[in-house]
Amino acid sequence: MPLAIQALFVALLFSSIASAAIVEHVFHIKNVLVKPLCKEQMIPAVNGSLPGPTINVREGDTLVVNVINNSTYNITIHWHGVFQLKSSWMDGVNMITQCPIQPSNNFTYRFDITGQEGTLLWHAHVLNLRATLHGALIIRPRSRRPYPFPKPYKEVPLIFGQWWNMDVGLLNIRPAPLSDAYLINGLAGDSYSCSKKRMFKLKVVQGKTYLLRIINAALNSHLFFKIANHNVTVVALDAVYTTPYVSDVMILTPGQTVDALLTADQPSGLYYMAISPYTSAHGQPFPAQVTRGLIIYEDTVKSSSSVMPLMPELNDISTAHRFSSNITALVGGPHWTPVPRHVDEKMFITVGFGLEPCPLGTKCPGYLGQLYAGSLNNRSFMYPESTSLQEAYFYNITGIYTDDFPDQPPLKFDYTDFVMRTESDYKMMFPEKRTSVKTLKFNSTVEIVVQNTGIVTTESHPMHLHGFNFYVLGYGFGNYDPIRHARMLNLLNPQMHNTVGVPPGGWVVLRFIANNPGAWMFHCHMDAHLQYGIGMAFIVQNGETSLLSPPSNLPQCTRDPTIYDSPTAKVDFSY
Ligand SMILES: *[C@@H]1O[C@H](CO)[C@@H](O)[C@H](O)[C@H]1NC(C)=O
Ligand SMILES: *[C@@H]1O[C@H](CO)[C@@H](O)[C@H](O)[C@H]1NC(C)=O
Ligand SMILES: *[C@@H]1O[C@H](CO)[C@@H](O)[C@H](O)[C@H]1NC(C)=O
Ligand SMILES: *[C@@H]1O[C@H](CO)[C@@H](O)[C@H](O)[C@H]1NC(C)=O
Ligand SMILES: *[C@@H]1O[C@H](CO)[C@@H](O)[C@H](O)[C@H]1NC(C)=O
Ligand SMILES: *[C@@H]1O[C@H](CO)[C@@H](O)[C@H](O)[C@H]1NC(C)=O
Ligand SMILES: *[C@@H]1O[C@H](CO)[C@@H](O)[C@H](O)[C@H]1NC(C)=O
Ligand SMILES: *[C@@H]1O[C@H](CO)[C@@H](O)[C@H](O)[C@H]1NC(C)=O
Ligand SMILES: *[C@@H]1O[C@H](CO)[C@@H](O)[C@H](O)[C@H]1NC(C)=O
Ligand SMILES: CC(=O)N[C@H]1CO[C@H](CO)[C@@H](O)[C@@H]1O
Ligand SMILES: [Cu+2]
């Protein structure tokens, strides 16, 4: 055989083997000192970096990550948006699919990544820890399969984070303290006094196209993103391809990702990219921090001044809504499946706030002098404490959860009227705290109308479903009308997501097929809201596939006194 052909043969052989590789990584988590602003702060970090390492795989690969916990915190790592087909034990949700990896312990996550391509993220799924424990998870097509858009010249991850000058372990104060900065790839940039030189910079070549892999890893903030004088073309959301959509502004809720093409088509120069928060809540104080990065064209003269994009207002609901609702799926593209027409389970879930009675003899900062509580259909989610939900289900352990999450709110009322207060509002104002789940038959098609409420406040809640993507059949404001709005749903080319921002005082309609057995959370991806109880869980029963036994080394909930009796670990989480 001539050498060239032999080489080609070997290359082909190699690529077919490589089309289902095992990708192995070690995450070494320890406490490190970092200084993104003026003050040094100890944080838990993966391999000492903020954000943590980017994981690159191809669709069809098996990912194996050994997480070694040398920090002082209990940790789990969640692979946000990954379907976890037949590997529900690897979802990494504290007290839902596992007990935490305790300090000085390790656990190896192992799962296949199939049927999805694009940008996702990994993050800790314990209280506030994902503030500093997060990173990109990039899933490229199998070898020799092209992108459904022109091949970019380069790919650039852009990871947005939210920063506090305080111990992340102490962050779960109610209400959540205001953050001190937003970060682009770990850098605060020139709009804060001590980080002027530490700004994310992207050098571009005139005429070339870049694939921006954008991740909102902020703990509690929706973020607008703009680049001065440039449009981008969105090609994927939450690792699902979309029809190309040109825009000069993007909005990402916590947990969402956007893949967008940026062509360097402007005159040589310096152009800022910027992120700023979007807050839809009524009358909430919020710092209008803008964080900038810089795009530098090749051969820009040194003295050039930088162009700044005009950012949307803090509460620009219409810009947010236009971007969120206007993008459609790439029908016929890789991994596209048509919307199922038959629905087995119809749910109507009211989402929002409520109150928890203020303990006698104390002063509480919330509305009407009470504490805040999250509410889904008048239930406020409590995490199990002694064993994980999925182990309780698998081993038939009673007393951990109740299988009674309601399909409807206990009351029909004017959900979104914010002008207080009817008697109905009061009847829904103090939700019941419990661990309630909804059990689904294998392969059932579930439709959920998620109805935001105006109880206490109206606010966009980014609802995240574990284990599945859902179609977003419609978005709207006000109360969902099952006759009028049902006729307007998009069953042809709706976008798919794992996280959707429910418009403030509005609704979305979601549909998914429950074809993966296990316990899967559905919750608000603003961490502060999840802690208030804006969440629930589905249990999908066995069918064509079954929930396997847990891996033998799955972390257990037994408490190791030698670790926790050290003074640094004595953190009071009970407020
Ligand atoms: C993290 O650091 C360890 C060494 O401590 C190294 O072996 C590993 O490859 C690093 N992981 C990643 C994902 O970079
Ligand atoms: C991390 O902890 C493990 C288990 O206790 C230990 O073997 C290892 O030496 C530690 N590594 C570092 C860098 O502290
Ligand atoms: C991981 O934990 C196991 C015990 O579960 C231990 O035997 C092993 O040495 C640990 N590995 C590392 C790299 O710390
Ligand atoms: C961005 O797109 C809009 C409409 O799609 C167009 O009007 C505008 O000129 C474009 N801007 C740039 C800088 O290309
Ligand atoms: C989506 O975009 C089209 C075309 O620009 C526009 O006509 C339509 O009103 C937009 N829809 C929404 C919900 O903003
Ligand atoms: C749990 O209960 C189900 C139904 O009764 C049974 O099929 C299953 O074997 C039980 N599992 C265990 C681990 O006991
Ligand atoms: C909501 O839950 C609370 C607490 O259990 C209960 O008192 C109230 O009656 C419930 N509301 C309705 C409308 O059932
Ligand atoms: C699952 O549902 C689809 C329709 O949504 C159907 O075509 C398929 O046969 C079902 N599979 C099983 C195992 O029930
Ligand atoms: C860490 O996890 C163990 C086991 O679940 C638990 O007993 C302990 O209270 C946790 N520690 C903290 C600080 O949350
Ligand atoms: C917090 C933590 O787990 N610390 C441990 C890291 O590993 C060393 C040994 O390598 C232990 O001495 C620490 O206690
Ligand atoms: Cu929320």
Q: Helical content, roughly?
A: under 10%
**From the coordinates shown, what is the CATH architecture of the largest domain?**
Sandwich
**Order of strands side by side in the largest beta sheet?**
10-9-12-17-14-15
| DSSP summary: helix tally | 6
Q: How would you state the average pLDDT, rounded?
A: 91
* The CATH homology group name of the largest domain: Cupredoxins -  blue copper proteins
Any idea what the radius of gyration is?
A: 23 Å
**Uncertain spans, ≥5 residues at pLDDT below 50?**
1-17, 563-575
Domain Plastocyanin-like: 30-143, 155-298, 404-543
InterPro entries: Cu-oxidase-like_N (IPR011707), Cu-oxidase_2nd (IPR001117), Cu-oxidase_C (IPR011706), Cu-oxidase_fam (IPR045087), Cupredoxin (IPR008972), CuRO_1_LCC (IPR034288), CuRO_2_LCC (IPR034285), CuRO_3_LCC (IPR034289)
Protein name: Laccase
Catalytic activity: 4 hydroquinone + O2 = 4 benzosemiquinone + 2 H2O
Q: What is the structure about, briefly put?
A:
The chain has helices at about 5-20, 315-325, 390-395, 425, 525-530, 560-565; strands at about 20-35, 40-45, 55-60, 60-70, 75-80, 105-110, 120-125, 135-140, 155-165, 180-185, 200-205, 210-215, 220-225, 230-235, 240-245, 250, 255-265, 270-280, 290-295, 305, 345-355, 370-375, 380, 430-435, 435-440, 445-450, 460-465, 470-475, 495, 500, 505-515, 520-525, 535-540.
